[in-house]
């Protein structure tokens, strides 16, 4: 049985047994927060429990490394939508120790792509189109520095509102312990958004 078949079979039982009822909530985060974190499998449930989050408490955005690297990419757009349209009033950037992005290098990714059927012509086409593959497919040396940089990228975005704090943390993927890297500041009088 394929993973898809297993999921579809389980889903049918999940719906028929009305197990979804315990997860009902609204589209607005109850705690008024949006979290950008890593897609690491160790964080799927650990992060929620370590932060005492329940279904509906937060908007969660995940990507490799919990990074905002492009000011007009989908990650930054999601953060702006969470703030302006979904009532998030604080942003948390949460990286983690032992992140796969600390060892990622573009040469390794490109070689694996070639071994899996991506031709040199396609790679050259990307380079000629202005994609800096060496930069795009490279990770970071320090998760703490990456979190600081992402916090700064969010705060300095031209559409990000004044007064919304952006916090930076690093979680230990084994214990759930959180290290505070950046405590975001709220500018008095500007903490609320105008409708």
From TrEMBL:
Binds 1 zinc ion per subunit. It catalyses: hydrogencarbonate + H(+) = CO2 + H2O. It holds the Pfam family Pro_CA. Keywords: Metal-binding, Zinc. It comes from the Bacteria. GO terms for molecular function: carbonate dehydratase activity; zinc ion binding. Its cofactor is Zn(2+). Its EC number is 4.2.1.1. Zn(2+) binds at residues 38, 40, 96, 99. SMART domains: Pro_CA. Belongs to the beta-class carbonic anhydrase family. This is carbonic anhydrase.
